[in-house]
Amino acid sequence: MKIGIVTWNSGARHKLFMEQAYPEMETFVVADSASDEEKIETCRDAEAIIMVAASLSVDVIKACPNVKLLQGIGAGFDKVDIKAINALGISYANNGGSNAIPVAEFTMSLIAGLARGVFRGAQNARDGNWNSGLRETPSWEIAGKCVGIVGMGAIGQRVAKMLEGYDCDTVYYKRTRVSAELEQELHARYLPLDELLQVSDVVTMHNSLNKSTIGMIGKEQLALMKPSAFLVNTTRGACIDQDALYDALTNGGIAGAALDVLAEEPTPSDNPFWKLNNVIITPHQSGISQEAVTRSAAFAFANVRRAALGEPIQSLVTPE
After folding, report:
1. Is residue 116 part of a domain?
2. pTM of structure
C-alpha cells in the first residue's frame, strides 16, 4: 500500500506522526514547500495522499492516477477544490474531529485571557509596568455569562461541554440545527445568528469556511453585539470581515477580540490589529498538541487503509 505524505511537520512531529502508520504501508514523504514537479515525482504511484497542513494543486492530483483518497489532517478544507477532486473520482476526508480537544481548550484559554486580562497583565509585568491599569481596566468573570457558539460540530460541542463547568448560559447557531437530545446533553439552546449575537457576552466561531460563511460576521452583525462583548475566532479569518472588525474594535462596537486566525497568514507586521490593546493575536496554533498529532495520524492512516481495502471512508467532505 503506497501512501504519499505532503507535510510541513518538523522532524520530531513527523516522527510522532509516522509512528501511527501500518507496517504494510510504504510511505513517500515530500515537503509542502516543494515544487509541483517534486510532489508529482513523490506521489505518482500513491494509492492515497495524506496532507499534513499542506495543499495540493489539481494538476498534481491529476498526475497521480492511482489515488483513491486525499486525506486532510485539519478540520478545515477551504484550500481544497472538493468539486474538482471528486470529478476525478477521488474522495476527500478531513480529520474526523481529531483536533477538537486542543482547539476547544485553546478557545477557553482565549476567552479567559480576554475576560480576565491575562495577556495584558503578563505583558505589563514583563515591561516593568507591573499592575499598570489593573484597577482601571474591567476584568470579567466567565461564570454566569452568555456564550454564543457559531457552529456546532465536534469542536463546538467540545466547547459547549467545557462551558458547563463555568455555569454559562450557552447558545449556539448552526445552519442545520442539532437534535433535541444533543442540545439537552450539551445544555445548549439554539438561536438564529442575529439573536445569538444580540444576547451573547462572548461569541466564539467554530464553523467551517465555505462560500456561505465568508464574511458571515460583517458590519451589520457586529453592530448587533453588545459593546461589552468579546469575539473569539479559531476557525478561519475570512469568516469575519476584517475591516468591519477593526472598526468595531476601535469605535467601541465590541470590547475585544481574540484571533488565532486572520484573513492573511502569516499576518504582516503592518496589520493594524497589532496596534490594538484590546486584541489578542496568536499564530493559528489552536489545533496543535502532541496528543492531536497522534490522534489525527492514527485516524488518517486508518482511513487511507479503508480506502485501499474498499471499505467505507469516514469523515468524507462533500461539495457544498
Report:
1. yes
2. 0.89
